[in-house]
Amino acid sequence: MGLEDLQHNFLTGRLEDLVKWARRNSVWPATFGLACCAIEMMSVGAADFDISRLGMEVFRASPRQADLMIVAGRVSQKMAPVLRQVYDQMMEPKWVISMGVCASSGGMFNNYAIVQGVDQIVPVDVYAPGCPPSPETLLHAILTLHEKIRTGEITHRSDEGLEIEPSVPGPGWVPEVPDAVRVATPK
Q1: Residue 76: HSE in the Cβ half-sphere, 13 Å Cα cutoff
Q2: pTM greater than the 0.85 cutoff
Q3: What is the rounded CA–CA span in Å between residue 120 and residue 98?
Q4: Secondary structure (H, E, C), the chain
Q5: What value, to the nearest 5°, has the Cα angle with vertex 39 and ends 53 and 149?
Q6: CA gap 104, 118 in Å, rounded
Q7: Angle CA(154)–CA(27)–CA(93) in degrees, nearest 5?
Q8: How would you classify the pairing of strands 29-30 and 95-99?
Q9: Strands 29-30, 68-72: parallel, antiparallel or unpaired by DSSP?
Q10: pLDDT tens digit string along 27-47?
Q11: Cα 123 to Cα 173: distance, rounded to the nearest angstrom
């Protein structure tokens, strides 16, 4: 009788499932709060919402110790290269949650100074909508990310739709210069 004929239980469970379980239950977020959404992100770590039950109580100040970046708030053109640098310094596997409408689409700031969606800089795994999103919305985004980790592949990172110009010297992101400034009009 070979191993494939044995019943699937905790002794014969796949190593991949064990790795996914460990990753899902030990996600450490990087502190990257940029605006008012950061207050809601901080409240998730407080006693009322207590993300320590999800294994995430340690917000890391060093990107080399974090594997989740929660982008909370609007991203300015000046902050975009810093955001990309922090993302590049994080170890694989790494995930990104875009928290709030400003981080997801630029929000009400449709001008040349604000990036119109953080997905232009880093690949986003989960979006948390709202202005500002409530702590429950961020908890839902975290649980959605946990499900994505549980059902995804452990060795492949899909960076679909994110193209960084290879002609740019060194790491970072170069903002595109608009042809004309559009104030209060949609693109």
Answers
A1: 6
A2: no
A3: 12
A4: CCHHHCCCCCCCCCHHHHHHHHHHCCCCEECCECCCHHHHHHHHCCCCCCHHHHCCCCCECCHHHCCEEEEECCCECCCHHHHHHHHHHCCCCCEEEEECHHHHHCCCCCCCCECCCHHHCCCCCEEECCCCCCHHHHHHHHHHHHHHHHHCCCCCCCCCCCCCCCCCCCCCCCCCCCCCCCCCCCC
A5: 40
A6: 6
A7: 35
A8: unpaired
A9: parallel
A10: 888 877 888 888 888 888 877
A11: 13
Of 64-73, 100-109, 132-141, the range with the lowest mean pLDDT is 100-109
Which residue shows structure tokens 């452990």?
154
| Rounded Cα gap, residues 80 and 82, in angstroms | 5
The structure tokens listed for 131 are 């202005």
Determine the distance from the C-alpha atom of residue 156 to the mean position of all C-alpha atoms in its chain, rounded to a whole number. Answer: 16
Name residue, tokens 């499932």: 17
Whole-number Å distance between alpha carbons of 122 and 100: 16
Helices 135-151/37-44 angle, 10° precision: 70
- Report the C-alpha gap between 182 and 22 in whole angstroms: 47
